[in-house]
């Protein structure tokens, strides 16, 4: 799968977001080492701590289907700026794949690429 295809999957996933409070749609597409792709969107809740980000939604779906070996993730947000994973998502992702590639997109179709370790230096991992 190309970078653009993975980003497009993330963008498509964002259409399912439940965002009555922020109105900010985010989608993620997580590619497993075996080529499977799991998508997720952000799901908000009135009890804000119960909100789940798109990245963690995709990760939980993948884990629940038996995938624990990840190659990369694409994150797309509908804003003018790049939509980076939040700190909580970075920490959850690093649990499984500290060297995964992270594609970070924005509404105009542009994107940048990082290694997860770059986005979360000094990782906490056992």
**N-to-C SSE string, H for helix and E for strand:** HEEHEHEEH
Q: What structural category characterises the helix and strand content?
A: alpha+beta
- Number of extended strands: 5
- Termini gap: 31 Å
β-sheet strand percentage? 15-25%
**Poorly predicted sequence stretches spanning 5 or more consecutive residues:** none
Shape: globular
Average pLDDT level: 96
Helix content: 25-40%
Lateral arrangement of strands in the main beta sheet? 2-1-3-4-5
- Main sheet characteristics: 5 strands, mixed
User: Total number of helical segments?
Assistant: 4
Entry keywords:
126 residues, alpha+beta, 4 helices, 24% strand, globular
Describe it for me?
Strands 2-1-3-4-5 form a five-stranded mixed sheet. The protein is built from four helices and five strands; from the N terminus they run αββαβαββα. It is globular and about 35 Å long. The protein has 126 residues and is α+β, with helices and mostly antiparallel strands.
The gist of it:
The protein is α+β, with helices and mostly antiparallel strands and 126 residues long. It has four helices and five strands. The radius of gyration is 13 Å and the shape is globular.
């Amino acid at each position: 799968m190309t970078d653009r295809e993975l980003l497009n999957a993330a963008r498509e996933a964002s259409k399912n977001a439940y965002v009555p409070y922020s109105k900010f749609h985010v989608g993620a597409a997580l590619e497993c080492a075996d080529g499977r792709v799991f998508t997720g969107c952000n799901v908000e809740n009135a009890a804000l701590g119960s909100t789940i980000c798109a990245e963690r939604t995709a990760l939980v779906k993948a884990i629940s289907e038996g995938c624990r070996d990840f190659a990369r993730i694409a994150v797309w947000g509908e804003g003018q700026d790049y939509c980076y994973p939040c700190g909580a998502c970075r920490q959850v992702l690093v649990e499984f794949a500290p060297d995964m590639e992270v594609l970070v997109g924005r509404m105009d179709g542009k994107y940048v690429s990082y290694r997860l370790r770059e986005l979360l230096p000094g990782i906490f991992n056992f």
